[in-house]
């Protein structure tokens, strides 16, 4: 593995590098940080994020805080810059198109955008780089008054239907861990649950998606009956964080099942504590890796 470039963060104790590792004929990029260990008077390195195959990494793959650094962008541009520019242009265009067609309520065109995109990229990229940021923008525009509540509902309903259509087209082996997805009482947004169900099913997990708000006692009964290996709690609206904390605590009081908590409401710098592990702003493709590392308790 060789160091390609580095950038300095605001703190003198933290340096961030892009490093490359060659496997056969391909280069793979990693974002790593070098942290000063005052006790040992030396620096230690930790991987911030695996970025992927060098020729396929684009600007959006870089964490937000490093995304506009000139040195980082220079490193990316050194790997097939024309291809990178085409991928970034395609991603930007697809986001603009999907936003318009969702807010217009045009499901047929949304399906076309999805199919055209996955011919070049993959399903996880569509969810991570297209659908998720577009739905976030729709929510932000509704919150700021740029979109009416009726338009927001239309867009959400079309997006949920699109995810279900994608779900019907994919299948997994179902021979891996059993994953239960649920939301706290009061959480009405479940598109994140549907996206996660689709992607984990593709990866072969057995998924129980309880993405609609139901009483906590019903969730506990389901856990006792189906005995999932892991429970995922999705929280989209910040106002539902307290309800999510209560749900996680209730599950922990009666079950040893590992609990992961994520969703749009927790994509913040310092998420609150839960009875479980907060995965926050995690890329979709990283979630199966996290799930595989958690030992089964049943």
Q: What does this 3D model show about the protein?
A:
It is built from 9 helices and 9 strands. The strands form 2 sheets. The chain has a 5-stranded parallel sheet with strand order 6-5-7-8-9, with helices on both faces. The longest helix has 24 residues, at 81-104. The chain has 298 residues and is α/β, with parallel strands linked by helices. Helix 2 crosses helix 4. The two termini are 39 Å apart. A hairpin with a 5-residue loop joins strand 1 (2-8) and strand 2 (14-23). The protein folds into 3 domains: 2-79, no CATH class; 85-169, Methionine synthase domain (Methyltransferase, Methionine Synthase (B12-binding Domains), Chain A, domain 1); 178-293, Rossmann fold. The protein is globular, with a radius of gyration of 20 Å. Residues 1-13 have low confidence and may be disordered. It has helices spanning 70-77, 81-104, 107-120, 123-143, 149-169, 191-202, 216-226, 241-254, 287-293; strands at residues 2-8, 14-23, 26-37, 42-53, 178-182, 206-210, 230-234, 259-262, 277-280.
């Amino acid at each position: 593995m060789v160091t390609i470039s580095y950038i300095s963060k605001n703190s003198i104790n933290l340096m961030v590098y892009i490093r490359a590792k060659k496997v056969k004929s391909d280069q793979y990029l990693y974002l790593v940080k070098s942290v000063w260990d005052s006790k040992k008077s030396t620096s230690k390195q930790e991987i911030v994020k695996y970025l992927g195959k060098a020729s396929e990494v684009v600007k959006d793959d870089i964490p937000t805080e490093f995304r506009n650094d000139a040195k980082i962008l220079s490193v990316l541009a050194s790997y097939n810059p024309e291809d990178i520019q085409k991928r970034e242009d395609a991603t930007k265009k697809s986001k603009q198109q999907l936003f318009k067609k969702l807010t217009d309520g045009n499901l047929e065109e949304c399906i076309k955008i999805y199919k055209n995109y996955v011919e070049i990229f993959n399903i996880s990229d569509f969810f991570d780089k297209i659908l998720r940021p577009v739905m976030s923008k729709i929510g932000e525009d509704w919150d700021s008054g740029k979109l009416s509540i009726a338009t927001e509902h239309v867009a959400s309903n079309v997006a949920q239907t699109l995810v279900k259509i994608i779900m019907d087209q994919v299948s997994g082996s179902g021979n891996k861990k059993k994953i239960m997805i649920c939301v706290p009482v009061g959480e009405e947004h479940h598109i994140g649950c549907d996206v996660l169900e689709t992607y984990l099913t593709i990866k072969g997990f057995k998924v129980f998606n309880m993405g609609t708000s139901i009483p906590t006692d019903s969730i506990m009964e389901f856990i006792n009956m189906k005995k999932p290996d892991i429970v995922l709690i999705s929280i989209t609206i910040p106002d539902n964080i307290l309800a999510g904390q209560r749900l996680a605590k209730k599950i922990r009081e009666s079950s040893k099942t590992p609990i992961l908590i994520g969703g749009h409401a927790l994509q913040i710098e310092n998420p609150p504590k839960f009875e479980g592990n907060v995965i926050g702003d995690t890329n979709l493709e990283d979630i199966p890796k996290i799930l595989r590392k958690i030992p089964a308790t049943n």
